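Good day; I would like, with your permission, to put a structural problem before you. What I wish to show you is a protein chain and, alongside it, a tokenised description of its three-dimensional fold. Thank you for your consideration; the sequence and its tokens are set out here:
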Amino acid sequence: GLSSEVALLDVHCGIGVGELATLHVGDNTSRREFLFLGDPIDQVSAAEALAENGQVAASPDAIAFLKEICTFSGSISPPAGPQVITSLDESYFEPFESEPCRFTYFSQNTITSINHQMSLYVHQAARNIDDVQG
């Protein structure tokens, strides 16, 4: 196989933040869709369109949130739109050295329910990957 020294995955990413709504449409036998709705989806779309391979871009709301939970260094001015926040050779944010941030927006039961709903959309072969690798 390839070593990590010769394999490079060319990806780019957009980050948004805010409240989302989820919607499960369909049934378990024919067609089903799991939809995410809300402003963060638009933020991610705009930020992702800005990012080039090897970059992560974030919406203004995401940048403001990251400044609250991370150590910030760099030259990002108050953004009017999405901005690149990290690339292969530069990053503006580092996690705080202190206690990790704990998110309390969802109860454990809600997270378990969301995980279950999302698992319905994973192909059966992927759900049983341990059986395949055997």
Summary: The chain is about 30% helix and 25% strand. Residues 39-50 form the longest helix (12 residues). Helices lie at 39-50, 60-69, 108-119, 124-127, 129-133.
